[in-house]
Known about the structure:
The complex is a heterodimer of chains A (252) and B (777). Chain A is an all-alpha fold and 252 residues long. Chain A has helices spanning 2-8, 11-24, 33-49, 53-69, 73-89, 93-109, 113-129, 135-152, 155-171, 182-198, 201-218, 221-239. In chain A, 77% of the residues lie in helices and 0% in strands. In chain A, helix 1 (2-8) packs parallel to helix 3 and helix 5 runs antiparallel to helix 6. The longest helix of chain A has 19 residues, at 221-239. In chain B, 34% of the residues lie in helices and 28% in strands. By secondary structure, chain B is an alpha+beta fold. Chains A and B meet through helix 8 and helix 10 of A and helix 6 of B. Chain A: This is Anaphase-promoting complex subunit 5.
Amino acid sequence: xxxxxxxxxxSELAQQVCDELGVLASSVIGVDxxxxxxxxxxxxxxxxxxNQFGQAAAVAHSLFCMCYKFNLQVENATVLxxxxxxxxxxxxxxxxLPYALASLSFCQSFNLDLLKASATLTLAELWLSLGSxxxxxxxxxxQGALPMILGHGGLELHARAYIAEAKCYLSNPxxxxxxxxxxxxxxxxxxxxxxxxxxxxxxxxxxFYLMAMVFDKLGQLEEREEAAASFMKxxxxxxxxxxxxxxxxxxx
Amino acid sequence: MExxxxxxxxxxxxxxxxPVPAQIKIAEWNPEKDLLAMVTEDSKILLxxxxxxxxxxxxxxxxxTSLCWRPDGKAIAVGLEDGTVSLHDVENGKLLRSMKSHTxxxxxxxxxxxxxxxxxxxxxxxxxxxxxxxxxxxxRVPRMPGLVSGDTGFMDDSEDSFGELSNSSHQRFNILCxxxxxxxxxxxxxxxxxxxxxxxxxxxxxxxxxDNQVTYRLLNASICKVALSKDLCHLIVTCxxxxxxxxxxxRDRHIFGHGLLGLHSLVLDTSIFWKRKNELHQVAQQxxxxxDLTEVIRASLSVMCKQWSDAMHMFHxxxxxxxxxxxxxxxxxxxxxxxxxxxxxxxxxxxxHQFLVSSLGEVGLKRVSKAVSNAGKELQFIVLDHLQPAAxxxxxxMGELRGLSRWRTRYKVxxxxxxxxxxxxxxxxxxxxxxxxxxxxxxxxxQQFSNFFSWLLKCIKLLMSETSDQLxxxxxxxxxxxxxxxxxxxxxxxxxxxxxxxxxIEIELETMQKIKELVQLGGFSDSEYLQRTMAKxxxxxxxxxxxxxxxxxxxxxEKILCxxxxxxxxxxxxxxxxxMSISYYKDISQAxxxxxxxxxxxxxYIAFKVPDESFSxxxxxxxxxxxxxxxxxxxKKGYTSLEAVLLSVPDGYHxxxxxxxxxxxxxxxxxETTSTSESSGSAHMLVVQVTDLPFVSVPRSTNLNYWKLHxxxxxxxFEDSITYxxxxxxxxxxxxxxxxxxxxxxASRGVACVFAARKRALVYILEEDEDEATDAE
Lengths: 252, 777
């Protein structure tokens, strides 16, 4: 449920759910580890969604220490990936890189293929945010992870991968939209389809933004307007989550 | 067996001169090892080592029309008269796989490998096959009971190499092309996964001739040779046939009563294989593994079906006598009722008594019981060792393919369709559920049978008034269920057998409801699947796979286009006897600058003997054309256009066979025509450096109605400069026999094998000269 709230941007409610989840666990150290890690993982995610990076990182760090202490290797990899994402979102791509790499090596040694693919994707996103000199590396990473992500990953991961793929092309200085626009537009289209299902406004807005930019370059004004309108819609939904028709508000 | 003629400077060391058992019609050297595969006139394949030790002989039973080696030298592809292409293991000659991709004789084969190893170029798509990390080695085909090993043919001892064939060999991407008598060319990846089929009759080449759009098309064409370039971008095809003009315009000045009948050569654009090789490689790897595993499932099902029905047959044979006994005694009841009344403690009726004590007896019962329980065990083994793991791996591999198919920008191009693959994945999942259910039904059936038999045994003991304390206990409720549901029905067989009538398996409403609810949680959208039998499900799965893999096949086929067509020379007689060789060499002249582009690293050479009847005024000539594949598109970019040379063979000799060798050299085999004496006649083998020949550029005329060689000949006659072969200037080795085709030359190994008319084979080392060898000794 907290995932749902996180996506909706209603962080207070998500926080509440997380706390409730944490209370369910036993207070004895070393018992109910799964529930405890899950609760604090969700906590960190919620903080991240609320853009409280410092707190999110602190929670994630303590979680990592706990996982390390109790030898929870899978969770270790997950938490490291989360730390990488926190740094990515906070704009400290360089800080994120070691976490992503550490997570990757954990995944590799424990055969966590899907997690590895998503760590690879995060790594690629980090490289991408470091500028266009790293595009080649990023695109190799994205394309290596894509079959795995598309085959076994969830919708959000799909969409992120599609967007990253499109971004790789767009930030490549030697790529020309005019020559092969479908290479960019097709992934973006697929991403938006999946993000609409998820109602993940933040990413959807990003995808539509990129789409509108491409259409603008191509001079296809009608399509551009359409994409821009969708972008607008998602941005509004993002800024103003108090939607009365939202069924979630009627639960509480 | 060295000959004692150690003359000064005699080129090509003779390795030996050995008799061969029969006349040889095809001979090919292994590209990796010193092995020579030969096909005799009576269609046997012989494999000899370099020391002429024979490794194996096989005879496929049908006429062999072509042969080639896999580039890694670990398998031989053989083309048969009936259109089958089969792969044989180099170790023992076992048939690894056979595919009937053509309808008529496969006349030529060419297997070309992509030079670079996937992944070692730091390539983007270094995508591993994860199956081996998650699954134990793939299951094999179960053995049919009652067959001695060896009878089962190819699915038996060759398993090790078979498994190896489908795994390690997939390191490098390779494509096998096969051309047939009717002008069809098939392409398959690894020689296993069919990826395209084209027919050269469907191609047409149009040119502008005096502002007229003229289209040419081939009629009655038959492929002579196919050669894929090393970068897989081009395919040169030579074929015999009639080139006709298909005019669009009515005012046609060039009306030919008949087309150009003779030898033509085409360049096909196969660059899809290069551009999409990573994608094709992955799809082919998954798909060919999936096909192997469906074979495993098919065989498992048939073995299981046979074993179970054998056991059931035995059971019914024994127990059917009861119903006839009942009728004989004039009773109006069924065996089940009789058994029930026995179970309920009523008096044993005379027929049942007679049946149990005399016709079945304790021994008979034990035998039936043993047969049924053995069959049950056997079936469980097959499911656990073969069927279930195969179904699981198929599901996994299909899942991987689904991941690929969703990457539309890359995989749509080669025709991997997301919807079809999704469907196939779902079917694979359903089969897994079916296998699970089958196991449940099987084990309950086996248990019920054994319960029933132990009850009967107790009854017999009682009737015979013997002690019955050491018998297995039984459950009378289960006996009742057995009599009601299993005595004259066979749910196990029902699942295994594919009957014409679709009998649905009854599923409780509650279960159906649950399945429908599962759809919400990502269950199978087709909720009817439990009503199908396992055999039916397997059939549906297979057809969904076929549908899914047919898509890449057609998509890639459509992308193979004809780039250019060149009429070579008229040839009224059968063109199959024309010695011809096609090869690609590194283009030294411009190799440096254009290294990145795949297109121009190689230059093609087509060498052929011009048949004497082709041109009246030029006899005894050899033609060599080069740069054909660059002709149409890249001339503008400044690349070598079509060039050709005519090489006249000296009088007193005629060309038996020729073969292009490495570094632009050509090996010629010439026979002396003037051998009047009965004894042997003699022949000469020589190596000619082709690049030293004075090639002339052939003008690119828009008129295709003209033999290219004719132009060349006219040019030469005009200039009076036909190149004469100067035998004394070349490396020549005389052979003390009159030679016949074929001449087998291996560019990678540097050896040549010449066959003499009197069933002898002579092997020469082309790299070493005789005198050098003696110096070394």
